[in-house]
Amino acid sequence: SEPVPEGSKIFTYGAHGKLLDGVISKYLKYRTELELQRTDMQMTTPILLGDSGGPIFDKYGRVFSINAWK
C-alpha cells in the first residue's frame, strides 16, 4: 500500500515559504529500463519553478515525499 492513500489531502511549501495544499490524484507504478520499480504521484498541489526538493507531507505533518518537476 502507499504511505498516503489516493484522495488524501496533502501539503507542501512553495519556494517562497508559502503553504500549498492539494489532493493525491493517483499513484503511477512502472518499471524503469533497469527493471527497478518506480512510483510517481499525481497531485493537485501546484508545483512551480523553484519548488523542487521541498517536502510533501500529510495532515499530520509527516513528510512522505519530495517535490520533483517532471
Question: Mind explaining what this structure looks like?
Answer:
The structure is a single chain. With 70 residues, this protein is mainly beta. The protein is built from no helices and five strands. It starts with 8 loop residues before the first strand and ends with a strand.
Question: What secondary-structure arrangement, pairings included, does this model have?
Answer:
Layout: E1 9-13, E2 19-31, E3 37-43, E4 55-57, E5 63-66
Antiparallel strand pairs: 1-2, 1-4, 2-3, 4-5
What's the short version?
With 70 residues, the protein is an all-beta fold.
List keywords for this structure.
5 strands, 5-stranded antiparallel β-sheet, single chain, mainly beta, 0% helix, 46% strand
Please give the number of β-strands: 5
Largest sheet: number of strands, sense, barrel closure: 5 strands, antiparallel
Radius of gyration, whole Å: 12 Å
Mean pLDDT over all positions: 86
| Percent strand | over 45%
Judged by helices, strands and strand pairing, the structural class is: mainly beta
Number of helices: 0
Report helical residue fraction: under 10%
Question: Topology as H/E string?
Answer: EEEEE
Spatial strand arrangement across the major sheet? 3-2-1-4-5
The low-confidence runs, each spanning 5 or more residues with pLDDT under 50, are none
Query: Rough shape?
Result: globular
What is the CA-CA span between the terminal residues?
23 Å
